[in-house]
Specification:
The protein is of the alpha/beta class. Helix content is 40%, strand content 12%. Strand 8 (289-290) and strand 9 (293-294) form a beta hairpin.
Length: 362
């Protein structure tokens, strides 16, 4: 009987792997990186498909997002010509633009525009943006993944994720004692069991995980911004906690000085938002909530304006080029699809603003 059960389990496991493989319900708990110089980044040759939910302003359909051999959105640097001028884009999800895919990415739009207008050395544009990254993450990826690649320009779109880090009480040393994984006997058994498809099927069936077929060749992520906005709107508003921009300013100075020391031009960009815009986008404000607390749109707008003002001051004090998107780009549905993220029109306006900087510097 025992032998029959073992054989039957092995056959069922093989059939599940072949016919209906399920994704790992605990991927983040298995991966523990000790001493990682770059805590957050896209893996080389990463790819996924983003599906925009109905009603998302300026974005529709399905778009494929992928990175090259260096983990950036753009052409493979190993195949770039020796005389190509290299431009790197750094930021969080507002620079990453995952929902727009590769074809609508600011790096792609900028690359196309510069290719059409350039009569001298060719340009190659690489987007190192990564969702959730703040300035302490940018310092890591700049120093460990970009400067040795001999950049000519580095554009930094900053502000909103540092504001969110402040609201969540995160420290700038990347120490998160409240996010440790308690590896109890139950945790270890759960992780061991879900190495197998049979274990993943059980986890999904009881509702702990999500029963969804895993396709390593084409993982699909669908946006759920409006449901998040509705959940956020149901919470009572709270006053903002005290926020200090001192560490943010120091990190900006570090970003500029490291870029300049590498012989490149540093460009700081302020972050536009829709928190003072009346109309359709008010129903899509899901980023007003953090840590189970909701803050008013006006309070968040005032707070982000403070960070944007720091960006302006650091640019002036360090000699970095300033692109003041917060003042020049309207925070409406023609440029944003939610609180701060660019839609197709916004990504095009962002790319055009960056192209103008490069063109003026020639």
């Amino acid at each position: 009987m025992l032998a029959s059960l073992v054989v039957a389990g092995a056959v069922l496991e093989l059939l599940l792997r072949w016919l209906y493989p399920l994704g790992d319900p605990y991927p983040n708990q298995r991966r523990i990186e000790l001493g990682a110089y770059v805590p957050n980044r896209h893996e080389p040759e990463f790819h996924m498909t983003a599906k925009a939910e109905p009603g998302l302003s300026g974005v529709d359909g399905v778009h494929r997002f992928q990175t090259n051999a260096q983990g950036f959105v753009g052409a493979d640097l190993e195949r770039a010509s020796e005389d190509a001028r290299r431009i790197f884009l750094v930021g969080g999800s507002t620079m990453e633009c995952m929902v727009l895919g590769v074809e609508g990415n600011p790096a792609t739009l900028m690359q196309d525009a510069l290719t059409q207008t350039s009569t001298a050395s060719p340009f190659i544009v690489e987007n190192a943006g990564h969702s959730g990254d703040a300035t302490f993450d940018h310092v890591a990826i700049l120093s460990q993944r970009i400067v040795h690649l001999k950049p000519d320009f580095v554009f930094f779109l900053v502000g909103v994720n540092d504001l969110i880090a402040g609201l969540r009480g995160e420290d700038y040393a990347h120490l998160h004692p409240d996010q440790t994984v308690d590896l109890t006997m139950g945790s270890l058994l759960r992780l061991a069991a879900t190495r197998l498809q049979l274990g993943r099927l059980v986890v999904a069936a009881v509702g702990v995980g999500r029963l969804r077929r895993w396709d390593p060749d084409d993982p699909v992520i669908e946006t759920h911004y409006q449901s998040a906005a509705r959940s956020c709107a149901a919470l009572p508003p709270k006053p903002l906690p005290p926020l200090s921009t001192d560490a943010y300013a120091q990190n900006l100075r570090t970003l500029v000085r490291v870029t300049q020391a590498a012989g490149a031009r540093a460009v700081l960009m302020t972050q536009p938002h829709s928190w003072r815009t009346e109309g359709k986008l008010e129903a899509w404000h899901w980023m007003l909530c953090h840590g189970g607390k909701r803050y008013s749109a006006e309070a968040m707008a005032d707070a982000l304006d403070r960070y944007n003002e720091v960006t302006r001051k650091v640019a002036g004090a360090t000699g970095a080029t300033l692109v003041d998107l917060a003042r020049t780009m309207p925070g409406d549905e023609h440029h944003l699809y939610d609180d701060v993220h660019f839609n197709v029109g916004g990504a095009r306006a962002l790319a055009n603003a960056m192209v103008e900087v490069v063109t003026r510097a020639r």
